C-alpha cells in the first residue's frame, strides 16, 4: 500500500465505505479504487484498483475494513459509484458521509433510470419500483426542504423523455416548496413528485418521428401530440392510479391562463395550483433541453421567456421560478 494522504484530509478526499455501501457494489469486481486507512502510520493507501478481481479472502478482508471504518473510495469517483447506489436509494437516508451534490446526482440517476424503465414497460412492477424511489426522495426533502437547492443543480440538457420528466419534477418540486414556505406533508410530496414525473407519460404513444420532427407540424401531427394527455390518462387508469394531484399534473400541464391551451381550453381559475405549477416546470424544462429541431436555451433566458408570458403562465409561479434559479447552489 502506497500512502497518499493524511487523516486530516480524509473527509475532503475520500468517502468512507460503510458495510451498506460496500454491499451495493459487485462482490468480485468493485467498480472503483478501494483505499484503506492504516492507523499505525496514520495514512491511507490504495488497496485495490477498480475493476480488478477480489478473491474470496480479499472480500472477507475488505468487509472487515468496512466494519472497522477504515475502507474508503475517492470522492472524485462519485459518478461511478452513484450508478450503483442509485439502485439502493434508501442508503441516502441513513448514510451521513455524502456531500449534498453527491446525493443530488444519485437521486437524479436513480429517478432517470426508473423513469426510463417505466416508460419502456409501463407495468405495475415498474411503476411500484418508481413509486418506492419517489417515497425515498419525498422523505429526504421532507426532512429538510432546503435540500431541493442541490437537487435542481443536477438538471440535464440532453433531451429524452425520462430526463425531461426528472427535470420537470425537480423544478416543480422546488416551486412547490417555495410556494408553501417549506411547510409540506409527506403524502402531498409523494403525490406531487409522481404527478410531475408522469405528466408526459402519454408521449410514449406519440411516434418518435413526430416528437422529434424538425419541420413545421401539420394539423395531423399536432393532434397526435395533443392526444398524449388522453393516452396518459388511459395508461394511469390501467395502472389503477387515481391520485387527484397526479391527474391534475397530467391533464392540465398544457392548459394556459388565457384559454389558449389544451385539451379542455381551461381559463385562469379553472386551472388548479398543481396544473399551473406543472405547466411552468414543464415549459421551462422543454426550453432548456436540447431537441433535434432546436438547441437548448440558457436557463436565465428561459425564465425571462416565461415571466414575459404572464397571460399564459401564472406570474406568481414564474417569479418564484426566477428565485429558484437565482438561488441554485453548486456545492
From TrEMBL:
GO terms for molecular function: hydrolase activity. It comes from the Bacteria. Keywords: Hydrolase. It is an enzyme of class 3 (hydrolase). The keyword Signal does not apply. Residues 137-331 form the HD-GYP domain. Transmembrane segments: none annotated. Its EC number is 3.1.4.-. PANTHER family: CYCLIC DI-GMP PHOSPHODIESTERASE PA4108, CYCLIC DI-GMP PHOSPHODIESTERASE PA4108-RELATED. This is HD-GYP domain-containing protein.
